[in-house]
Each structure stands twice: as structure tokens, then as C-alpha cells.
Amino acid sequence: MTHITPLSDNAWDTCVCPEGFTLCGGSCWRYENSSLISYDAAVSLCADLGAEVALTTSSTENDCAVCLGGSIGIWLGLRGSTTLESFLTSDGSTPTYTNWHPTQTALSGCESYGCDNCVYVDPIDGQWTDYRCDFILLVLCQTRTCCA
């Protein structure tokens, strides 16, 4: 699939997403709805596709994730341990954009299942919530090799 986006009056940028991926918000996305899987399984599945578990870096990308993600929560590419500020991306950096649910002021349920938490996006309001990484959700894979 090729999309041509005007950059100025006389410049054009051609974006080509890998087969099975959809262009949205400057990234290529692939919704894997074949089964509910844990966060670690989602990481492996996306890696096999040459991608990563999706991480939205803007409200536009967050909207893409919600639109492409269907009606069940989807994993986001963040993992943390003790505080919301501890959540890091797959490359170990702090996210530049967040969309935490307003009630998400601290990690939920550490006393129940430990504090190795991952993040999912709610399909209804697009807000983020942490939850245990062994929970099973759908996955949205993303590659940023297309265009900015």
C-alpha cells in the first residue's frame, strides 16, 4: 500500500508500509486479532513481524490505536514496576507522550499480583491503564520505518 502525502507545494513523500500493515499517523500498524495473548507473547509476535508492540507518541497515534484496535483492550509497548513514572519503552526510554486514565495515579493491584505491570489502551476512551503482564489482550504491532 502506498500513500503519497504532500510536504509542500513541490515536495512529496512516498510511504510504503510492509504487507499487512496500515498507515496511520506516520507509522505502520498491524492489528493482530487472532487470539488474546500475554504481553510477552505480544512482544514476540510483533518481533516476528519486524515490528514492536505499538506505542503511541501523540494523540493522533493514540487515536489510530483505538480505531485499529477493535473492541477489546490492546497492549501498549510500556512496562513498569513501582510508579507510573517507572514505565519505560522497549528501548528503555521514558515515553514522550502518555494518556493515563485519570484514576491511574499509582500502579493498580501490586498487592494482588506483584508490580511487574504492562499497559493497555481502553478501546472505549483511548486512555491507558496498567495491568499485570500475564493478562491476555489483543496486540497492535507498529513499525516506524515508513515516514515521519
UniProtKB/TrEMBL annotation:
Entries under InterPro entries matching the protein: C-type_lectin-like, C-type_lectin-like/link_sf, CLec_Tetranectin-domain, CTDL_fold
SUPFAM superfamilies noted in UniProt: C-type lectin-like
Alphabetical UniProt keywords: Lectin
Family annotation (Pfam families): Lectin_C
GO molecular-function terms, A-Z: carbohydrate binding
Domain C-type lectin: 24-142
PROSITE patterns on file: C_TYPE_LECTIN_2
Record protein name field: Pulmonary surfactant-associated protein A
Species, as recorded: Amphibalanus amphitrite (Striped barnacle)
